[in-house]
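go over this:
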Amino acid sequence: MSHFLELLLLLAIVVTAAKMAGALANRFGQPAVFGEILVGLLIGPTVLDLLGWPLFSGGGAEEDAAFLPVMHDLADIGVLLLMFVAGLETDLVEMRRVGKVAFWSAFGGVALPMIGGALTAVAFGLPLYWEGIFIGAILTATSVSISAQTLMELGALRTREGSTILGAAVIDDVMGIIVLSLVVAFAKASAGGVDLVQIALVAVRIAVFFVAAVLAGRWLGPVLRWAASLAVSQGVLAATLVIAFLYAWAAEYLGAVAAITGAYVAGVLVARTEFKTQVDAGIHPLTYSMFVPVFFINIGLQANGRELGDRVAFTIALVAVAIVAKAIGCGVFARLCGFTARESVRVGAGMISRGEVGLIVAGYGLANGLIGRDIFSASVVMVLMTTMMTPPLLRLVFPHRPGPDVVVEEAVAGVPGVFEQVS
């Protein structure tokens, strides 16, 4: 069977498996992404090793080696589109409105896991620069959609704690992206030793990129209006993709930050134009029909539980630190900002789930050689465990209010929920 036919068959299997697993996960009260990653682990080298079957490998490692990069490239496009959608759904006005409690809760939920992850890595013999710091960066993420889904089921979305969780998760995602960009940029600049001059130059490149990106954002509206005037089909959506890809390219090639950061910034800026609704309607089917399922399944295909080896103890410790550090970091700062002890516990519990940002950071670290495959696999396990335990924890700490939240659409408007479209 030819390489192209193998790819067609694999994509058919991947998309089908992802959607079926997502639907099954929802039936058991879990977010769709949990099922998608889990089925990726199932068909990956951890269990079935689908790509190692003669049907796909052609019986030869050389053909298989040429085949795998195609899946990785499709997954990379998926993650860029995923981060663009996250930026598109970020409401800067809402972020400012939620106030200091959400900000400081997010800060605590980034700082403490960052420190805890780095110290855990050092305790298990890993170098602090840059592997340990990058492991800390993986732990900084929070997935707002998983908590939002559970809060809606509990009728607690509009409570003070619910609003704080959603607002803090938005800020947390932005902080996590900034941390990722800085860690990746500095790690590349100091490869072979910490060069303060080189790091300073990288910091200048980062600052110049963000300033230039924001200034260029003023022209996105006119560009999209011009695209809308063209006598072509889907002109606005095509122009939007060009903008997202150019921002992603410029972020990494010119600005020394991760490409996904550029895609996220592009999404935030496009959301401020009059074309947000139109772009939203077009980008979601494109993103979630194939590219995002390929990304999540590819996470499972890359992770190999058999490679954990002597990292089993590290994995257990990483999961424990991820849970405790995030809950304490967010909860303590909420308490310091005036929340009661019970409310602070609820905020901490709602921020535990890592979700897509943790996977994106881990995948980027693996692709750029900042972490090994064993650490990547441990990170996937951590994401799965925190994703799985957040809904039960929220159900435990929040009193159940019968009946649906009838104003869900209004309450979650502008809050990034990049998984709502996955299933």
